[in-house]
Queue: 2 jobs
Job 1
Amino acid sequence: MLQLAYYKEKGLMANIIIGSDHGGFRLKNEIIEHLKQLGYDISDLGCYSPESCDYPVIAKQVANEVLNTGNKGILVCGTGIGVSIAANRFDGIRASHCTDTFTARMTRMHNDSNILCLGERITGIGLALDIVDIWLNTEFEGGRHKKRIDMI
Ligand code: RB5
């Protein structure tokens, strides 16, 4: 369970692992500010400047941290596609590239998505933050969906 209220009730900090390449640097910073204001604890794994860098490196770091901690991750690149391809190479990662709120909700309910991928050059800040909020606050339904995930 990752709902912020649940964590606060238990006296825990909900930790979100986040990373981007240069193509997602600005949107990543907007997301960090937004989530900090909501009370989330953020682990920012880079990049730390708009200088050109390689998205597979950042995706690997975020994927490993998600697998090691069990916390959820957010990855941003120019399109959201590169980071999703790279993150999904890791066993146990279910990275979802979302450009709308319906998909963000459904990928939590049915796929138990553990990394959200966004494209700074595709999705505007307002919509991106709505996608983040819905993705973080939607529960996995389990049941028949768990069986299907176990088949992957
Ligand atoms: C960087 O120019 C761009 O290729 C990258 O951010 C991403 O969109 C790749 O899929």
Job 2
Amino acid sequence: MNWLNVDNHHSFSIYNLPYGIFDREGVPTPGVAIGDHIIDLRACASKGLLNDLDFDKSVFNSSVLNPFMATGKSTWKLMRAWLIHSLTNEASLLHKHQDEVLVNRIGTQMYLPVEVGDYTDFYSSIEHATNVGIMFRDPANALMPNWKHIPVGYHGRASSIVITGTDIKRPNGQTLPPNATNPVFGPSKRLDFELEMAFVVGQSNTLGNPISVDEAEDHIFGMMVFNDWSARDIQKWEYVPLGPFLAKNFASTVSPWIVTMEALDPFRCAGPEHDVPVLPYLQTNRDGNFNIALEVDLMPEGGSPSTISKSNYQYMYWNMSQQLAHHTVNGCNARVGDLMASGTISGKDPGSYGSMLELSWSGKNPIPLANGETRTFIEDGDTIIMRARCSNNDFSIGFGDCVGKILPADQL
Ligand code: CA
């Protein structure tokens, strides 16, 4: 039992203990969420609460988690053990100093928790890749010949990754109207979300030295919900031959807390069966998927939210270990703070599709909302809310909402 009496099925139960950067009197500060509170790690360090732990506590002077993550997995484990012990013992220093180091979580401003050096986006849901292949290319050959051999991905844009709650301006760009030969310029008419999860690299590899599939998880600090906003009309015109560019780089939104791999471990599960054998460097016997229930709500301006998708991270054909092993197999160095997103997470059932492109089947099937309106793509004033949650009979862990509202495009 924890002395804060946080319920085991609270999103931020004692089984979770996710890390984030919160606002304390105007200063971005590293913290851990527990129930409706945040533990101020900088205050814990300065008051000597962490003195028995053998690592450099000045990592908590940073306004991002990169220095703490760089201390490595043994330190991540030390901190988790200390947090659990401190929250379950009334004789702990944390209990004694709670008035100085515990702050209210509800309504507290959060910041981007890591300085993202590089951002890579994979394309690892077989249902999503198949659906997009059918709509954008060839229904008979929806999956490209490489897809079951390579965790396909591309290098994205790190500078436009924003924290939940940040408003997003509808992008302007070039599109090719139906039956036209020349493009036009203006606001995207097919603005979409992509329901994804992203993992954060917490341990680097050096240039020229790949991370093996079996050691990959030692390099992963944790996960966040990730909305990879996408302008489908811009994408369709620009993506051949080198892939997505301005359709994707205007914004991606992350949820506020990084849920650690240790917290996720009880929800480990097998992924979908691979019916095509993979090369040895991608082979692993360990279950590398995680059962994370996902939901997307669309909330019109002034209206109430409607749930328009229910998916699950465990549908991923390629898991994180395979993604990171593939990413580095040529010697590419991943760095602390790098973000690697899953790609849109769709399931088999149409209600589990992870984008409006798929949910409305390229605009052909309008999506009903609770207020009687419908949507094919996102309209100005709409807010997209993504949620992720793991549950078993004994406890739950959540990620905190990943929220973004679409504002009208600039008039040009
Ligand atoms: Ca994506």
